[in-house]
Amino acid sequence: MKEFEGKVALVTGGGSGIGRATALAFAREGAQVVIGNRNVERGEKTVSIIREAGGTASFQRTDVLVAAEVEALVEHAVKTCGRLDVAFNNAGIEGDVKPTLIDQTEANFDTVMNVNVKGVWLSMKYEIPQMLKTGGGAIVNCSSVAGVIGVPGIGIYSASKHAVIGLTKAAALEFSEQGIRVNAVNPAVIDTEMVDRLADGMNVKKDDLATFHPIGRLGRVEEVAEAVLWLCSDKASFVTGHSMMVDGGFTAR
Ligand SMILES: NC(=O)c1ccc[n+]([C@@H]2O[C@H](COP(=O)([O-])OP(=O)(O)OC[C@H]3O[C@@H](n4cnc5c(N)ncnc54)[C@H](O)[C@@H]3O)[C@@H](O)[C@H]2O)c1
Question: Which ranges of the chain have pLDDT less than 50?
Fold first, then answer.
């Protein structure tokens, strides 16, 4: 029996990077996967990869900024799969890289906070009532190492990821007695398009960012996916309100 057989897993931002790898991993472990993504082509591509591998998946275009679209995504999951058991609220953006906070714009502040913080809040707002109907569930929100330490140049992103941990802890406390566990993952530098953009913005080579990690290389999307799956699985039945570093030792220094 596969770990997520009979379960329905929702992944926001599942059209690329960490979200796609996690959607693929849920499908490999037997879940019916529902993908929400702002970009249609990419979301549909993840679905086709899963189906080609023999898994079950569907896509609904979703901008996590828009309450009605997040609500519709959860409704889509219930309509197509009958229930919602686990969710990975992963959609996020890095925003602008600037020398310091005083160089950042109000527009970038609003965009980053809205996608990364409001998007995670809206996702939980619609996922949790659905999970309550079937006796519980598990949620993982995507924070970052930048959610526990300050990162110069992306201070607004860093603040948004600290807020994701705050939302995670509050939700964990509010719903622990009702069978919903809520945790976060805190990846360090994982080899995705986001990191390509960040490296460009910081004017460094992507591989040079590996020096942040005592393990000595960039992280792989599959390594984050495995942490998310474990946190969502029954193996983590006594783990809630936690934010798990997936950082190659970055924050152990
Ligand atoms: N890559 C890293 O090093 C790293 C490190 C720590 C945390 N993270 C976090 O991991 C998550 C995934 O990042 P990634 O590296 O895979 O980046 P990515 O840019 O490859 O993927 C992000 C995905 O989210 C989608 N998305 C963006 N805004 C959206 C919105 N408003 N509504 C719906 N979908 C939206 C994008 O279309 C994209 O498919 C993000 O929350 C990011 O902050 C990444």
Answer: none
